[in-house]
C-alpha cells in the first residue's frame, strides 16, 4: 500500500461531469468532502446523487474533471481507493441467501481482514449494530432496518477512511433510521468521513454539511443550518383554523408571495418569498379565531424555496371529476370498514385483528414500518386478498364476495404505478378506460377530462416510461379514477418520490378529497401523515394507535418535548407498544 | 488474493445449495431431460399400425401375415378388401397398407416382380421411410424363409445383407442420450451462469463487490470455478444415468470424456459470462442465453438433426455452435471409442470459441458499472 499524500480533505471533486447519453447526470460539480463529518447529498430524484457516489467509489469514470479520494484517483488507482472506502449501495449489497455471519465473512475476506483480528472485529460490529442474536438468520429474512445495519457492518469491515452510503434510509422505518444516525455519529467521532445521500429532508438537517443537488448541479454547499437561515423570518403557520384546512391551504398557495403552503396537522405552514408580507387570516377565510404566527424555519422550507421558482404558475385546479353517485343507503360514516381483519400466511400473521372506519370525504392514512401489514390490509379492503378472519367492507359491500359492479366504486393505485411503459400516455388512458367498460363518446369525454385535469396534453404521444416521475404519478392517478370511483386506495403512492413532486401529488389528492372522494393512503413518510385527517398506526400486523395527527402528537407531548414531530409520536407509540408486548410475553412465559 | 477467491467460491456454492432454482437447473433438469429422452422420445418406429389386405387366404398368405404380425415393428389389422382399410390410412390410423394378391405364391416363387403393394402414409416422411424399410425387411425375410423351407434357391439375383456398425440395434437412444449431455451442460454453463451474474446486478451485490479490493480476475474466476465444478458434477450424473439406466455403451476412455467435457464447459461458461456482461437483468439474460446457446445446441448441434443434411448456409452457422463439436465428440466417445482423429479437430473448435468469448468478456469487464 503506497503512502497517501497528506491532504486535509478526504475527497475532492473538481468540475466533474458525467453524461449518460444526452443527459448530464453530474454537471460541473466541484466540492470538498471533509473527514470526521457527515456530508449529505440531498436533492430530488435524478439529481445525480447516486452517480456522484459511484464516481467517488470508482465505479464510474467522469467524462470531465478530476476526483481524488484520500489522495488517489478512483478511476486510475481504483485498487488503492477500494482499500480506503466502504461503500453501501442502494438495497445494501447483501446476499439474501447467505446468513448474517456468512455475509460478514465474505466481505471480511474480500477486504482482507486478518484471520486473527476477525473474531474481535465481528463481535464489535455485531454489537454495534445489535445483530448479535441474528447471526444465523438469512439476510433475506431480516427486516429492512436490520438489512441496513448489516449492510453498514459489511461496509465497515475494511476500516474505511471514507464511508459512502447511498440512500441508506430508503424504505426503512423511523426507528431504524434513528438508530442508523446514532451509529453514523459514532463513526464520525472515530474520525471517519461519511457521505450519505437521502430523500428525507429532516435527515439533511442532521448532516454537518450538505450538497444540495438538482439536475446534476450543486445548488448549495455548506452547513444545512446556513441554508435554513436564508428563509428565516419567512416561515409562518396558520393556526386555529375554523373550517376546512385544505381550502385554507389552497387559498394560501394562490396568494402572491407564498412559495410553499402545506398542511401540518391542524395548521397550515407557509413559506414566503423574500420581502413578502404574511397573508392576513381574513384573506385565507380561515375563520375568526385563526392567526398567522411566525415559526422556526426548517431545512425543507429552504429546500423548496431554493428549488421552486417563486413566480411559478400555481398548480392547475382539478375540474369536477366524474364520481359514481354513492347510493343513498350507504352510511357516509362507514364508506370503508375493516371489521376485525386478520390474515395469515402460513405461520406468519401479517394482519392481526385490525379494525377501523373511514368517513366520506376523509383522507385516512395507514402508517407503519415496511412489513407491518399495511399493504396486506389494503389488499383485503380492495378484495384482492381474502381475509383469514373478519370482514372488509367498502360502501357496505364485502368486495371479496361482491360482483364487478361493486368494484366500480373503488380505484386502486399500486406502489409501482402499474402503467404500461411501452404504451403512449393516450394508449394507457384508452386501455384503462376500456377495462372499466367505457366506450364511444363516454370514453372520449372521460379521457378528455382526465387529460385536462392532469395537464397531460403535451405528453399524450410519448411513452409512459419516458415521462417525468411527477407525470407518471399523475397518469397512474388518472387511470385509477377514470371510472369515477367514490373511494380511492393509494398504496405508497409517493415512495421514492422527491419532496417537490410529492407536494404536487398531494395537491391533487387534497382537491379530490375536497370534492367528496374518500381516500385511503399508506405511507412511510411521516410528514405526509400530517396531511391526513386521521391516521391508523400499524405495527407488527396490529393497529396500535388511531386518531388525528394532532391527537397522536398530543399523546407524546410532555415537559421535555413541547412540540413533538410526527416521527417522535411514531417512535414513542411503537416503543410503548413493543414494551407492553414484551411485558405481556414475560408474564405469560 | 487466494483468500478473496476462496471466499467468492464459497459464497457461490452456498448460494447454489440454498437456491432451489439453481439446484433445479443443475440436477433436476438433467434427470428429467434424460428420462424424457431416454424413455419417451424415440426416433425408432415400433408398434406401427399396419393394415394388411389379404385378397384370398391361403397357407402362403397366412405365413406372410404371420411374419408381419410377429414383427415387433407392426401391429396388424387384416381385411379382405383394400377399400376397408383405405379410410383408416386417410384418417392417420394406419401408417401403411400392404396388399397381398391372391396369386402370391405363384408369382413370388417364380421370381417375378414384387407382387405385393405397399401404400405408405408419407405425411411424416421419417416414419414413412421407416415403414417402407421395415415392410421390405419383413418381405425379404419371408422370401428367404419360404425358399429355405421349400428347398429351392432364392430366385432374387442379389441379396442385400446389411450390417450396422457401432449401434447394431439402431437404437436412437444410443445417440440421443450422449447428445443430451451437451444440452444439459449448455444449460448449466451458459444459462445458469448468465442468470446468476445478472442476479448479482439486479440485487445490487455486484456493485458492492466492485467497491471491494477484489480484482476482475478474481470476480470472473469466482464465477467460473464453481459452475465448472457444478457442470462436471452434473456431467457425471448424466453419464452414470446414460450407461447404467439406459445401457448406452461407453466405448471411449473416461479420461478423454472428462477432458472433452472440460473444454466444452470452458466454452459454454465463457459464453454465459459474456452474455451477462451485456444483459444485466435475469429476464434479458435468460432470453439471450436461450436464443444464443440453448436453442442452437438443440437444433444445430447434430443432436437430433443431421448437420450434413442441412442447407449449406446453415451448416456454416453450426461451426459457431460449441455444442456441435461436443456432440460429435460425445457420440464418438460413447459409440465408437477414443478416436483421436475425430476428437482433436472438435476440441480445437471448442478451444477457439472459448478463447474468443473469454477474451471478449475479460476486455469488457472492468470494475465499473458502465
Overall description:
The complex is a heterodimer of chains A (589) and B (370). Chain A is globular, with a radius of gyration of 25 Å. Among the domains of chain A are: 11-226, 3-Layer(aba) Sandwich (Rossmann fold), CATH 3.40.50.300; 230-307, Alpha-Beta Plaits (2-Layer Sandwich), CATH 3.30.70. Chain A is an alpha/beta fold. In chain A, the strands form five sheets. A six-stranded mixed β-sheet of chain A has the order 5-6-7-3-8-9, with helices on both faces. In chain A, strands 19-20-21-16-22-23 form a six-stranded mixed β-sheet, sandwiched between helices. Chain B is elongated, with a radius of gyration of 28 Å. Chain B has a four-stranded mixed β-sheet with strand order 2-1-3-4, with helices on both faces. The mean pLDDT of chain B is 83. Chain B is built from 14 helices and four strands. Chain B has helices at residues 2-18, 20-40, 59-70, 82-90, 104-109, 125-149, 172-202, 205-210, 216-245, 254-278, 282-299, 312-318, 322-335, 340-364; strands spanning 48-54, 74-79, 96-100, 117-120. Chain B is mainly α. The interface between A and B is medium-sized, with 35 and 27 residues.
Amino acid at each position: 500500500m503506497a503512502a497517501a499524500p497528506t491532504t486535509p480533505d478526504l475527497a475532492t471533486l473538481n468540475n466533474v461531469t458525467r453524461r449518460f447519453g444526452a443527459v448530464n447526470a453530474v454537471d460541473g460539480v466541484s466540492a470538498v468532502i471533509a473527514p470526521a463529518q457527515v456530508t449529505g447529498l440531498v436533492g430530488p430524484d435524478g439529481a445525480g446523487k447516486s452517480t456522484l457516489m459511484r464516481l467517488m467509489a470508482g465505479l464510474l469514470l467522469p467524462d470531465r474533471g478530476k476526483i481524488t479520494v484520500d489522495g488517489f484517483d478512483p478511476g486510475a488507482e481504483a485498487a488503492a481507493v477500494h482499500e480506503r472506502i466502504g461503500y453501501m449501495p442502494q438495497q445494501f449489497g447483501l446476499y439474501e441467501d447467505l446468513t448474517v455471519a456468512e455475509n460478514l465473512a465474505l466481505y471480511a475476506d474480500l477486504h482482507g481482514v486478518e484471520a486473527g483480528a476477525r473474531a474481535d472485529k465481528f463481535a464489535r460490529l455485531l454489537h454495534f449494530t445489535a445483530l448479535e442474536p441474528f447471526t444465523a438468520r438469512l439476510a433475506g429474512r431480516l427486516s429492512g432496518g436490520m438489512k441496513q445495519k448489516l449492510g453498514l457492518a459489511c461496509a465497515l469491515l475494511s476500516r474505511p477512511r471514507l464511508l459512502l452510503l447511498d440512500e441508506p434510509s430508503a424504505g426503512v422505518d423511523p426507528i431504524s433510521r434513528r438508530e442508523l444516525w446514532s451509529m453514523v455519529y459514532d463513526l464520525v467521532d472515530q474520525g471517519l468521513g461519511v457521505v450519505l445521500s437521502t430523500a428525507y429532508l429532516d435527515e439533511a438537517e442532521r448532516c454537518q454539511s450538505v450538497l444540495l443537488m438538482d439536475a446534476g448541479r450543486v445548488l448549495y454547499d455548506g452547513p444545512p443550518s446556513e441554508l435554513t437561515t436564508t428563509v428565516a423570518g419567512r416561515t409562518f403557520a396558520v393556526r386555529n383554523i375554523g373550517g376546512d384546512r385544505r381550502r385554507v391551504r389552497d387559498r394560501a398557495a394562490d396568494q402572491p408571495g407564498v412559495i410553499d403552503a402545506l398542511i401540518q396537522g391542524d395548521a397550515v405552514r407557509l413559506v414566503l418569498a423574500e420581502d413578502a408580507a404574511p397573508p392576513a387570516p381574513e384573506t385565507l377565510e380561515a375563520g375568526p379565531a385563526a392567526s398567522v404566527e411566525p415559526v422556526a424555519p426548517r431545512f425543507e422550507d429552504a429546500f423548496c424555496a431554493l428549488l421552486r421558482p417563486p413566480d411559478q404558475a400555481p398548480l392547475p385546479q382539478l375540474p369536477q371529476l366524474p364520481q359514481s353517485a354513492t347510493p343513498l343507503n350507504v352510511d357516509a360514516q362507514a364508506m370503508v370498514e375493516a371489521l376485525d381483519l386478520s390474515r395469515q400466511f402460513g405461520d406468519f400473521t401479517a394482519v392481526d385483528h385490525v379494525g377501523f372506519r373511514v368517513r366520506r370525504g376523509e383522507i385516512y392514512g395507514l402508517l407503519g414500518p415496511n412489513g407491518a401489514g399495511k399493504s396486506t390490509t389494503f389488499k383485503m379492503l380492495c378484495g384482492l386478498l381474502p381475509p383469514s378472519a373478519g370482514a372488509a367492507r367498502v360502501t357496505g359491500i364485502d368486495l371479496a364476495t361482491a360482483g364487478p359492479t361493486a368494484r366500480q366504486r373503488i380505484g386502486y393505485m399500486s406502489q409501482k404505478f402499474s402503467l404500461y411503459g411501452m404504451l403512449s400516455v393516450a394508449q394507457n388512458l384508452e386501455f384503462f378506460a376500456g377495462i372499466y367498460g367505457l366506450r364511444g363518446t363516454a370514453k372520449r369525454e372521460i379521457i378528455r377530462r382526465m387529460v385536462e385535469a392532469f395537464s397531460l396534453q403535451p405528453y399524450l404521444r410519448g411513452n409512459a416510461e419516458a415521462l417525468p416521475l411527477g407525470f407518471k404519478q399523475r397518469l397512474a392517478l388518472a387511470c385509477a379514477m377514470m371510472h369515477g370511483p367514490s373511494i380511492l386506495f393509494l398504496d405508497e403512492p409517493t415512495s421514492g418520490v422527491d419532496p417537490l413532486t410529492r407536494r404536487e401529488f398531494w395537491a391533487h389528492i387534497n382537491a379530490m378529497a375536497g370534492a367528496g372522494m374518500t381516500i385511503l393512503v399508506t405511507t412511510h413518510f411521516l410528514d405526509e401523515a400530517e396531511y391526513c385527517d386521521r391516521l391508523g398506526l400499524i405495527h407488527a400486523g396490529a393497529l396500535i394507535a388511531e386518531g388525528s395527527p394532532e391527537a397522536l402528537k398530543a399523546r407524546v407531548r410532555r415537559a421535555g418535548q413541547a412540540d413533538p414531530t410526527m416521527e417522535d409520536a411514531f417512535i414513542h407509540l411503537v416503543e410503548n407498544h413493543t414494551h407492553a408486548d414484551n411485558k405481556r410475553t414475560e408474564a405469560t412465559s | 488474493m487466494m483468500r478473496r477467491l476462496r471466499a467468492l467460491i464459497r459464497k457461490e456454492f452456498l448460494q447454489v445449495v440454498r437456491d432451489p432454482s439453481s439446484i433445479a437447473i443443475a440436477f433436476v433438469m438433467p434427470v428429467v431431460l434424460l428420462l424424457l429422452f431416454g424413455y419417451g422420445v424415440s426416433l425408432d418406429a415400433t408398434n406401427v399400425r399396419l393394415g394388411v389386405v389379404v385378397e384370398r387366404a391361403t397357407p402362403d398368405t397366412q405365413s406372410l401375415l404371420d411374419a408381419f404380425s410377429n414383427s415387433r415393428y407392426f401391429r396388424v389389422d387384416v381385411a379382405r378388401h383394400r377399400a376397408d382399410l383405405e379410410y383408416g390410412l386417410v384418417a392417420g390410423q394406419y401408417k401403411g397398407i400392404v396388399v397381398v394378391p391372391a396369386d402370391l405364391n405363384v408369382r413370388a416363387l417364380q421370381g417375378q416382380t414384387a407382387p405385393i403393394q405397399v401404400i405408405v402414409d408419407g405425411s411424416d416422411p421419417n416414419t414413412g421411410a421407416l415403414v417402407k424399410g421395415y415392410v421390405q425387411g419383413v418381405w425379404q425375410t419371408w422370401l428367404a424363409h419360404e425358399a429355405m423351407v421349400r428347398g429351392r434357391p432364392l430366385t432374387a439375383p442379389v441379396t442385400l445383407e446389411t450390417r450396422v456398425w457401432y449401434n447394431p440395434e439402431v437404437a436412437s437412444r444410443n445417440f440421443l442420450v450422449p447428445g443430451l449431455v451437451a444440452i444439459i451442460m449448455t444449460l448449466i454453463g451458459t444459462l445458469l451462469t448468465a442468470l446468476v451474474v445478472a442476479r448479482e446486478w439486479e440485487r445490487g451485490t455486484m456493485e458492492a463487490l466492485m467497491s471491494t479490493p477484489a480484482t476482475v480476475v478474481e470476480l470472473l474466476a469466482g464465477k467460473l470455478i464453481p459452475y465448472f465444478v457444478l457442470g462436471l458434477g452434473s456431467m457425471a450424473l448424466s453419464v452414470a444415468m446414460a450407461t447404467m439406466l439406459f445401457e448406452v455403451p461407453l466405448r471411449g476412455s473416461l479420461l478423454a470424456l472428462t477432458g472433452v467435457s472440460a473444454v466444452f464447459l470452458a466454452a459454454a461458461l465463457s459464453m454465459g459470462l459474456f452474455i451477462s456482461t451485456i444483459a444485466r437483468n435475469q429476464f434479458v439474460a435468460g432470453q439471450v442465453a436461450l436464443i444464443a446457446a440453448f436453442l442452437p445446441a438443440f437444433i444445430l448441434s447434430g443432436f437430433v438433426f443431421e448437420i450434413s443434411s442441412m442447407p449449406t448456409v446453415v451448416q456454416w452457422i453450426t461451426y459457431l455452435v460449441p455444442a456441435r463439436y461436443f456432440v460429435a465428440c460425445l457420440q464418438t466417445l460413447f459409440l465408437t471409442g477414443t478416436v483421436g482423429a475425430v476428437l482433436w479437430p472438435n476440441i480445437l473448435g471448442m478451444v477457439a470459441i472459448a478463447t474468443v468469448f473469454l477474451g471478449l468478456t475479460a476486455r469488457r469487464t472492468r470494475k465499473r458499472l458502465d
